[in-house]
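Each field is set out as follows.
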Amino acid sequence: MDWKTDWGLRGRMGFTMFLLFALYVVFIGVLIEVFNVGIIFTLAMFGAFSLAQYFFSDKLALRSMGAHEVDPDEYPDLHRRVERLSQQADLPKPTIAVANTRVPNAFATGRNKKNATVAVTTGLLDSLDADELDGVLAHELAHVKNRDVMVMTIASFLSTIAFFIVRWGWLLGGDNRQGAPVIVAIVASLLVWVISFLLIRALSRYREYSADRGAALITGKPGALASALMTIDGRMDRVPEEDLREEAEMNAFFIIPIKAGFVGKIASTHPSTENRIERLRELEKEMETA
């Protein structure tokens, strides 16, 4: 099934990424001026850090969730579903991981289509019916197809640098002669971190809408994903608070954000479930009349 491209959504994503790029160009210029280092050295340092983040972020994400890779003997039905949906999405079959937690959720990670992992929780497997589970898995595969993990990793890279400067910049002050430049760097980093924090959250929300559209295209059943979102959102209220707090920092990866903990309180990485369901219902009508 096919439908018109959502140019409004693509335009918002493109404009947000342009603003991030412009912000980071200014930030690099400030750091070069303040610390009086060459642009080649600065880019080399940032490049090394970004490569490390690029290659190891997936392993860190799985470890933070306590997810482990599972083989077809352990979860045969899950493997069959992912393999079938991967073929429908024209993707290589990703690695499959499972996290033993009551929180019903799922996420995708990995630096590219050939090195991707789709992870689900035992709480999710216990909560959804067959079509709903297909919808969620297709949503995660759409993230892989859209290279969302790579995009968000790149988008958040210099924001992470800015955060570290804000937190530990005072250690760079050394003697009094360096105090003023370091203060300038810390103030600039604080502004960059706050602005990029808001832009990255907006970009994340737009990409969730895009992954919802991709899941509808892969399965041909937007209503199944809408039903899954309602089920997951309802089950969140039954999960113990300690479980929610432990996993709140993974909000950017999850199909439904956890509405608890520090990250969940200060910003949302996802659109509201109501808005996502409304858009999926509109897609369902669009597909029925196509």
